Amino acid sequence: MDFNLTEDQLAFRDAARAFAEKAMAPYAGQWDVDHTFPVEVMKEAGEMGFMGIYTPEALDGMGLSRMDTSVIVEELAMACPSTAAFITIHNMATWMVASFASDDLKQEFVPRLASGEWLASYCLTEPGAGSDAASLRTRAVRDGDSYVINGSKMFISGAGATDVLVLMARTGDADSGAKGISTFVIPANAEGVSYGKNEEKMGWHSQPTRLVTLEDVRIPASNRIGNEGDGFAIAMKGLDGGRLNIATCSLGGAQAALLRARNYLHERQQFGKPLAAFQALQFKLADMATNLVAARQMVRLGAFKLDAGDPEATLHCAMAKRFATDACFEVANEALQLHGGYGYIREYPLERYVRDLRVHQILEGTNEIMRLIIARRMLEDGVAEAIQ
């Protein structure tokens, strides 16, 4: 068992770090203040391959593993967790099209998505269907060679500024549950698609979040991904990787916060000594570092299991998401505390890290839902032994 990164992974890390330090870090604070969605920067990220990291090379992606992806995303998130998080959502949506769409649909959409020419939004959550995603009510009705879609989606990242919607809608009966859901690719400017106001959020200011309303939106039946009724399973497969992605964004934000806290302990003097000389603060830094490393190892284990097609990959991804997003939020919060009053003002990025990382405990399945996934699986015979 080798925990060291490979030479290729080190090269990916260095490339991502150089890009993040040049194109993201100097501007992230202003993006947050101005609520700027940095589309041009994401197109530059596309030129680096970062908008199609685990999309197959045959469709102009990088074709990398989930482990490679985690190494890259952590570096991007150190510069700006909010922008990195949108990049991961785009990667998840792109992978879903690349993995489950027809060949014609793949060729039409995926190369442009993987290059960053087009941006994608993932549309699952609804005003009345959050954690209970299987109860969604947006409806797609077959009409000859088309589907007509009506409904609404809530809290959609990038909505109103993206080019493609990867959307889940009900094609079965009202009481068909998860088995009655299908997935569609919809041009974001299709007739009948409209967008609500950009929500005023606690964090994630560098990406818009809007309500998406669909009124008699007609799309070709060929824009369905997979068979009718496959949509919920496709959405959940996307979320296995999406949960690792969001957990990795938490790693990046926490790593950046930890480094700033360490440096600050050396720089700041109180009572005639640097803060680094006080044992209570040394212990705090030690716990922050330990929890961050533990979180990173859980995320990388989840990525390894997903890459290997392990039958318990979903369980490992849920565990990693639950632990890493909780632990990393606490690391960022403790880093802010170590900065005292300075941590609370915008001149320092600590308050931004805290605000951005807080939402990771909610989205891609709340951490309470992660606990349900974990508990239900652990109560089955043989699972506790299988993950030993």
List the topology elements.
Layout lengths: L6 H18 L3 H7 L4 H9 L18 H14 L1 H20 L2 H12 L5 E4 L15 E5 L2 E12 L6 E7 L10 E7 L5 E3 L13 E12 L3 E2 L5 H37 L1 E2 L2 E2 L4 H30 L4 H26 L11 H9 L8 H12 L4 H4 L2
Parallel strand pairs: 1-4
Antiparallel strand pairs: 2-3, 3-7, 4-5, 5-8, 6-7, 9-10
The termini sit apart by 15 Å
3D shape:
globular
The main β sheet shows up as: 4 strands, mixed
Quickly give the structural class: alpha+beta
Number of helices: 12
Rg from alpha-carbon coordinates: 21 Å
Poorly predicted regions are: none
Order of strands, main sheet, comes to 1-4-5-8
**Secondary-structure element series:** HHHHHHEEEEEEEEHEEHHHHH
Mean pLDDT comes to 97
Instruction: Compute the number of strand runs.
Output: 10
Percentage beta strand: 5-15%
The level of helicity is 40-55%
Task: Describe what this molecule looks like in 3D.
The strands form three sheets. A four-stranded mixed β-sheet has the order 1-4-5-8. A hairpin with a 2-residue loop joins strand 2 and strand 3. It is built from twelve helices and ten strands. It starts with 6 loop residues before the first helix and ends with a helix. It is α+β, with helices and mostly antiparallel strands and about 400 residues long. Helix 1 runs parallel beside helix 4 and helix 7 packs parallel to helix 9.
